[in-house]
Batch of 2 targets.
Target 1
Amino acid sequence: MKPGTVVLVGPQGATPDIGAVLAAHGVRGKVALVRAGYQEREADDAEMIKWLGVPAVNLALHRRSVEVFRDDATFTAAYKERQQRLRHMQSFYRVRLDKIEDAARTVSVRYVEPELLEQEEKVSVDQFRHLDADHVERCEALRVAFDRQWRVAERPLVARHRDELRTDLSGVEALVIAGGHVASLRNRIALFDVLGLAADKPVFAWSAGAMVLTDRIVLFHDYPPYGSDIAQVLDAGFGLAKGIVVLPDPKRRVNMDAHAGIQRFARRMAPATCVAMDHGSSLVYERGKLSRASADRLTTTGEVERGWDGAPSRFSSPYLRGGPI
Amino acid sequence: MMARAIKELAAGARTREAIDQFFASHSFPIVDGSSITFVWRGEAERVHLKHWVFGLPSSQQLARVDGTDVWHLTLQLPPGSRVEYKLEVVRNGHGEWIWDPLNANKARDPFGGNSVAHGTGYEIPTWIQPDPTATKGHRDEIWIDSKTFGRRGFGLYIPARFQRNRQYPLLVVHDGHDYLRYAAMGAILDNLIDRLEIADAIVVFTSSPDRLKEYADDERHARFLVEELVPYVERLFPLDAQPQSRCLMGASFGAVATLSTAHRYPGFFGRLLLQSGSFAFTDIGDRNHRGPLFDPVVAFMNQFRAEPAPVSERVFVSCGMYESLIYENRSLVPLLLSTGMDVRYVEARDGHNWENWRDRLREGLSWLMPGPFLHVYE
């Protein structure tokens, strides 16, 4: 396989297909497994390694982070402070998001000409987009400033773990990133620069693992226990799978019949393509570009395009400057 | 109004066998669309339905099917309703309040309990039942030597996945032992934490020997919670000592204690859960029709209504539509919103009782102290 190949698949569930996907892409030898999204359950990897069908080394990023946070008190205090700040920023972003949602709903039920409402809907979507972009930018700025101030790569413990990981990765054919807690996973991959260390390897990922490889991590759930919610951008992803928003496990999390909701979400995320990834879905990136897909696509006209193959869509947005998406 | 089933009984032979067959072939009370029929069988001078649905007469007489020992009363009950009741059977001029012997649904409370009628569409939530697959938190009872109140015990819940190297939010529950006994709060915490719907949290269950006084905007109570209890628990456990990670909750007078504590220590508890709060107030004068126990509550609420303040960050308010307190709770919501606090308000077709409060815990706690369900994609 060529370096730079990224394969995203759907949730593994009761009948995992990651082993077949690896085999189909010619992976026969040992792989490196990231299970940091499972946090304290990271080491319970026996069953997952069976799914892979090839030997695997668990990179143990969660365990390594626990060691860093335990033994490097100064860095840990600063890191926790950064995380607290990110949480506050997320909370403030959410407050603003809710207000935009409220305003959009209020505007949408006014008794005026449909053409004017359509224009106003575009304004509402633009407000979402502006807020999302601003949030991601500010999160990234905070991370960059933190890395610059703390020279993370030079912290002795972090550097030691990165050296160990470099050794672990030297003998593997591919990097496999499982799902789990998406923020935890993103932070550990970044802390140890795993994608930099594995830059010459193909990457396979699912669920939260797939989400962190995109440009933006979007949290979503149409059926939260408190009744209803709107999707929110958590942070920037690592951008290996560009131009998409990955929505794993849509059967459980997305109301696929909500035409207006799908339309607004797809418009909000455009020009990125929103891809619902159930079990059996896949997206293949080669040389940084999407080369083929088998998934469901949410369109800016509010449809669900089943079995989308990655080709440019016949659906177009009536208002996006980039034209058809 | 007579229910179809009763009409059919009355139109029939009215023999013992026919009546036995009627009882064998129905479940009680009889729910038919939006009507509900309470039935009792036996000899009596009168039979009354006793309930606590605000807006309906609290005592309504059942009619007797002529020539039988069958008594019945049909009411309109909107879909989704849940009503607690008893029957009063009057014999020899003496009334006895009993549980409905034909109805297996019962709710327990500190006064013994009631029979429960479920309207069309009401379902007992599945997440209140102990789930054998859910990991169980650890429960304990510990004591604090309080400068304010002397030696006091409180219940403790430690989540199953507890680890010393993590930091946890804190939830303090007024009348906590009653929430455990009557609102299934132990099983609910186990289930919702296991499902990632609420955060792994340390939970403290407080109880008061004089709640009507201590919960009614009593300065000592607020001081006890904020200056003694929470710091004590923070010494015992790795808690995230931030307002966003402290939640205070209660029902009825416990909700008053929650809001008044937050008012006395603004910003200390960043999350409040107020269930069926006894938020009595007056628009003129200072005496409320509810009696002298409410006088300090009225004084507090009148003050809060005059100068509403953002005492917390996020507030979940719930109340039953069939409570006399619905007016006070509905009135509170715009005031809370006017302060800039993030507020959610939920009503249910239910009364002032523990199972109403139980049924709202999932949406309240998951909004105030969300678990990682939104972040986990396996």
Note: The domain at 1-325 of chain A is CATH 3.40.50.880 (Rossmann fold).
Target 2
Amino acid sequence: MPLTHEEKERYSRQIMIEGWGLEGQKRLQAATVFIAGAGGLGSPVSMYLAAAGIGTLRICDCGEPELSNLNRQLLHDDGRIGMSKAESARMTLKGINPHATVVPLPEAITDASISRLAGGADVLVDCLDSFEARHVLNRYAVERGIALVHAAVQGLDGQVSVFHSPHTPCMACIFPREFPRGVFPIAGFTAGVIGSLQAAETVKLLLGLEKSLYNTLLMWDGTRCDFQKITVCRSPVCPVCGKKDTGHTPAKDTHTP
Amino acid sequence: MTQDTPTVAVAMSGGVDSSLAAALLKQQGFKVIGLTMKIYGGELDGMPSRGHACYGPGEEEDIAITATVAAHLGVPLQVIDLHEEYREHVLRHFTHEYLAGRTPNPCTRCNPLLKFGFLIEKARASGIAFDCFATGHYVRVCHDEHYGRYVLKKARDAKKDQSYFLYALPPSLLELLMFPLGDMTKDEVRDRAGALILPVSRRPESQDFIEGGAYGDLFDSAGISPGPILNSNGLRLGTHRGIVHYTIGQRRGIGIAHPEPLYVTGIDAKRNAIVVGPKSGLFASGLQATGLHLLSTDALRPGQTLQARIRHNHSPAEATVTDCTDTSITIRFEQPQLSVTPGQAAVFYDGDTVLGGAVIDSATRDAEHNAAPAAQEQNHA
């Protein structure tokens, strides 16, 4: 679909960026992104992606906004308390960019539902707060070979990485266990910093720019305002992405080169 | 082998690369065990130490440094004695090849046979349990849809790529290997090394096989005798010091005054002769190789195009397979290549993927190519 005059004007300042251009903008318009979670991380992620002109945003959350969410979940406001988060997200995102197709998905992410919910997305964005649902998303990403932009936040700390099996480790290579869920401290701007990085990595994946968070976990320590990159490696014995049965009998194995 | 935290054995040498590999794996949360090979068998005792290398009397110091690095990282280190295996499978082969007029590459043998072979085998046999094996090599392993298996790929940073040395790994081993440095750029390596290991080690990874590159010290002087230096017409131009001191493409040290520069274009062990000629005599239109080892594919077939790398620092050249059996292969280059050297490995690529490799037996020389060397110098060391 060609960009209208109005759209060219709307996106003009980002089209100027090297490696973006009109071609890149059209690629974003044709793209579908699945955003798992419409909370603290899902807010900046979906708002920046909608504003950037991603064609279709599938935003999934089975919860409802509560008063204690509003310090960080900027998709929602007082008037939306008790409404579906997915629907509230749709309203906000349409307000940011009427060109975006927003598909609200007020459902839980399970092994049974994920394929239907993700609906052929080009990139999956992990804005979840439960490792159980994260591992569902990860298994799906590995099975389909789709890039998963992971993040997690707590207090003044956060982390981001891009998992794209088989080119990188998967989430289970790095976080094999599920962490306990509960009420944890979180500042709104922590989700803002980390969610903005997720939006940036998502757009870079769609534009084909530098894959800077492949095999890398970026950690932000907000107290010291320090970013640290950790190189991460695929685990050959990972229960999710490890040791695929290759059906290959190594008949040629020999110790003589 | 616990289900939660896999144990990774890392081959450590005390150099920056293998130390960083161990540090990164440890940081990610793996249980890490360091393994270091003891390969020196005393052959060079009494010779002056000429610096840092894989093989030489400096090994004891290297092992001490490795132990310091391992202690700093909190990694238990096991020293595995492989000096007999090294003498048998690397050194003997090396001297034998040189005496046969060939120029072997010891790294393409030491890696698959020693580091990825006996080291793993002996460590396991001595009761050290681990799930995966890692080294500091700049290569990548991943599952590839197209080939339907785990494949070996070039490093992300082409300038650091070491895939040439690993073409002969057993295919079944790939799925258990980890190369933490394979996806890193030079800058990333420098940054991470600075943060994680520099307090203990600034040593570069060994690049030399023998300390000071003094291959001659390995040879029994009885096996080396002076002989004729001939031109391509068989005319004697001078006397050489023993064929083991020469390699194809060599220009310096021939010691003959001649109007145009002379290069070693052939080594004839049977006649104990070195053949020299102008640079045009170094170009080959193809090569024959034996000891074919396939890594990422089950077969190569005549007519197939691929890229062939004929030494470590050679940019892979487009080529077509003209003949292939289970053990040997003949290829023809799209553009003639300089210094195809018998004894060196020819490693075959499909883009970034290592298909396999073989040991060069001979170069194909076409009369037309000898007359008109069109290709550019490919060998930037």
Note: Chain B is about 20% helix and 30% strand.
